[in-house]
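Could you please review the protein record set out just below?
***
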Amino acid sequence: MNETIREQSWLPLILVACASFIIALDVTFMNVSISQVVVDLNTDVSTIQMTMSFYTLITAAFMLISAKLQDIVGKKKLFLIGAVLYGIGTFTAAVSVNDTMLFAGWAVVEGIAGALMLPAITSIISGTYSGEKRTFALAIESVMVAVAAAVGPLFGGIMTSFLSWRYGFAFELVIVFIILIMHKRIPDFTPTQSKSDLDITGSVISVIGLVLLVLGILTLSNDITTSVIVIILGIIALVIFALFEIKRKRKGDVPLLDIDLFKDRNLRVGTLILLLAYLAMEGALFAVSLYLQSVLRLSAFNTGLTMLPLTISLFIFAVAAPNLTAKLNHKVLMAVGSILALIGCLILSYHFRFDTTILELMPGMLILGAGLGFLMALSVDIALINISDESQNNASGVTSTGQSFGESLGTAVIGIILILGIMGGISNAVGTYAPAHSGDEQFHQDVFNHFQKMASVNEIASQGSTVVTIVDSIF
């Protein structure tokens, strides 16, 4: 496909953006299905939270390796390999009979597949379009990611309420088939490096560091001392990785990650903003979805419907952002987006009550969506704007890692805050409603386990269980 055809056709953008859409959709559509998944697979909230976090964590952990493999295997070939793996993973998740099978298909196989595709998506767009078309194309890809992440709750609500959460994965499988059928419309790119250039040692160290960091955060509620040690080990591993990459480049070998890229301020700031934006969005979606289902007792569909203002607002402002860059620069628009997102979070924080209505949540949702729309639409473009063509693959791996790592941290951090808050609430509720059990650790654990089986509360509430009374008092 020659340069002229590339520039004239938007089909390559549509196909790779569809891949971005389903990868992002996977992160959020299951938020509103938590209660049903707990029942269907006989599992608990913490296990589903861990699976959600590990999906994005595994994607982030393998992102840098994937970015390098683009140079060795080729962008298009790596993207298609990822698409095939994604199809296998989403099929496995759709037919899961237990939480282990769901974890294997969703978190592991889809996580690795997402890692193979995401950097290739950005690189294919950057290599296919230039100038204003490149800015527009990158913005559209970011919009697709943002909209998928925001529309996920409503999509998941519809699937779960009227069909099954399994059909959500089936829908993704259909998109994968479409991409594979039309793959010839995606341009080919010649590999620029050989297999000997792959930094295996650096790859192993980077994966270990990222996994340890998030694993430590996920286990904070179980053993704080051990978790802190694991987090510190993760940070040490990442520092060792950075030093190893610097040394490798000085020796004249090809590094997995060129640390010199971070001398570019736009890449540093753009990636950091991307990480924080996705951390805020995924954390907010997880917290609000859990609150709507466990406290307000909304169905999956009504939970998704309640999240709709955020979806609409995010879409409108993300689409408008590229056009506004002609009048206001990226820096101004992203500053406005950050302020709006902070205001939206602040407003929402005052409405987590027992008697909150959907209308009361709407202003915070709208403002948060507007801020995130600005940030998500422009952060990738600003991060890559000064990067040379030969470094685009490496830099796209950095931005994609930031995005996925932010999503993983969002679920992990907010999840652990919620669990710690619940444990504190259990202690207070037991003292009020069952003072005879205030020193009974097993009783406290039974109450917590009952919360973990959140879907069963309504089923046995009529039995007048003390445990149920305490859980209801907390929420």
Summary: The two ends are 58 Å apart (CA to CA). The CA atoms of residues 266 and 386 lie 7 Å apart.
